[in-house]
Structures are given as C-alpha cells and as structure tokens.
Amino acid sequence: MVHALRWSSMTASTIDSFASEVFTIEVDDHVATLWLDRPEKRNAMGHAFWDDLPLAMEAIGGDPSIRVVVIAAHGPHFSVGLDLVAMAGIASAPESADGSRPSTATRAWHARKQIARMQASITAVADCPLPVIAAVQGYCIGGGVDLIAACDIRLASSDALFSVREAKIAIVADVGSLQRLPAIISKGNLAELAYTGKDITAARAEAIGLVNQVSSDAEAVVADARAMAAEIAANSPLAVQGTKAVLVACEDRSVTEGLDYVATWNAAFLASDDLTEAMTAFMEKRPATFTGN
Fold first, then answer.
1. Which of 43, 248, 26 has the alpha carbon at shortest distance from 150?
2. In terms of pTM, does the model score above 0.85?
3. Where in the chain is the domain with CATH 3.90.226.10?
4. What is d(CA 43, CA 58) in angstroms, rounded to the nearest whole number?
5. Strand pairing of 200-201 and 161-163?
C-alpha cells in the first residue's frame, strides 16, 4: 500500500491564529519550531495534545513560506508519553440513554474509535509534506517515541532516555511505534525495546539508529536541529518535498517500481524556476536562492 503525503489547503495566516494550551509555534525564516509546551507535566499527552497536534501540523503545512519543521519541547523532558490521569477511562463507552450498561461490543467499538483518533494525531506528523526533525531531551517515553518515529530525522541530547514503555503498563503500543520503528531500527532491537519496556540512553539510541546524532545538552540539540533545518531550507523546496514524497512512495514499491515512480515525478516537476536558478548560480559561482517555483 502506498501512503500519500497530505497537502494542506490552509492559508499562511493559520499559524498566527493557531492557539493551544499545550503547543506553541515559533517561526524563524523558513523553519517552524513546534514546541511541546506543557513542561509542568513533563509534556504528558492529554486530551489537548491529541486534539491540537493535527491542527498544529495543518497550520504549519498550510504556510507556503515554511520549508522545514522542528518538533522540540520546553522543560527538561521531551515527553513522558500518555497522561494516564487525564486519559483514564478514555476507552470506556458512555452509558446508554436509558442508563443501561453498554455491551462488550459497544465498549470495544468505543475503545477502537479512541485509539484511531490518537493514531490519526501522530499520523498527521508523518503525513506532513515538509521534512520534520525531532529534537529530544530528557525522557522520551511511550507516546513520545510514537511521535518521534513519525518524524523524518531524530536528534537527541546526551541526557535523553527512550522507552517503548507500554508493556510495563500492560498494553500493546498502539499509536505507531510498532509500525514505524521497523523502518528505523532493526527487528531485534525493536523487539528488545518493546518486550522489555526498558530505558535506553542517547548513546544506545544513536548506536541502533534511532537517532542521527547526540548533542551535548537540551539547548544544543535544539540549536543543532535548527541548524540542520536551515541547511535543508536553503535547498529547493520543490526538490526537498519531492524527495520526501518519493521516499514515502517507494517504501511499498520494488526498486524497479520506485525508479519508474521517480522518473514520472521528475518528468512532471523537473522544469522549475529553481532548477534554472541552480544552473545560473553555478555558472555565476554564487549560492543559489530558491523560491519554490
């Protein structure tokens, strides 16, 4: 199955009007930083998180000036995952109008609906057509790992700790880690993390390929993520977003099918103003300035 990236139809003004109790958006040039902004709760994921994350990604994706997204967190921890107190009973079906107890089937249907809602929130990150970089410090547990697994690139501070923790609280991870991590780390490493629920250090995360690099501390990892984002943003946005689209499409295709796909893609999008600018800049021995046209 091919998973298509979802292109937003929102306007640039959406970022200015976006409001959330648990997220803030900061824009610097062509880079948007989406901050998890509930530090007093160690960025635990409650109702507002699951409701607002897709809206935040839609707002960012709808701004044509944004070329790269960094997801970072205020406070000492990226996220401790699901807010177990706030989300307690989320899978419980409400009583019927006559006050009777819902059937087992009704309760199961309601639970599945709530899980699907949470899955869709994380998928909004994976479906963003822009490159998404995670900058992780401190705890990144459970849903935090689900979130960074939906990103394209992951960086960590030296104090970061990662855990696919769900088995320790008697549930199966169900918001994306078990589905996305196999494309990031090996089957054996994933099995170890998911079966044991153990914490692993940033150094171990780097060694198994969960993160690209380790920075010295929380401030440095955000700076490094933004520096990488700026490097990406300096390239043609048509080419960068096209590369992401092709990578996503080729996940479910053979090499031959993937080559055919990218040939068709470039046949449609190769003749851009950015390509002309790249050739002109090369001849004039100057840095190219891309517009995305």
1. 248
2. yes
3. 13-233
4. 21
5. antiparallel
237-284 in CATH: which number? Answer: 1.10.12.10
- In 3D space, the residue among 134, 123, 136, 201 whose CA is nearest the CA of residue 163 turns out to be 201
Q: How far, in Å, are 84, 125, 236, 264, 290 from residue 193 at the CA level?
A: 21, 23, 38, 40, 42
Which H or E run includes 241? Answer: helix 237-250
**Plot region of 197 (φ>0 → left; ψ -120 to 50 → alpha; else → beta):** left
Q: Which amino acid is at 6?
A: R
Distance of CA 38 to the CA centre of its chain: 18
All CATH 1.10.12.10 domain ranges of the chain, comma separated, are 237-284
| Phi/psi at 216 (5° precision) | -70, -40
Domain 13-233 architecture: Alpha-Beta Complex (3.90)
**Cα–Cα separations (whole angstroms), residue 196 to 71, 163, 187, 191, 199:** 27, 9, 14, 8, 9
pLDDT per residue as tens, the chain (293 positions): 334 454 444 444 478 889 999 999 999 999 999 999 999 999 999 999 999 999 999 999 999 999 999 999 999 999 999 998 877 766 665 666 667 788 888 888 888 999 999 999 999 999 999 999 999 999 999 999 999 999 999 999 999 999 999 999 999 999 999 999 999 999 999 999 999 999 999 999 999 999 999 999 999 999 999 999 999 999 999 999 999 999 999 998 999 999 999 999 999 888 888 888 899 998 999 998 988 88
**Integer Cα distance of 214 and 160 in angstroms:** 9
Strands 31-36 and 68-73: parallel
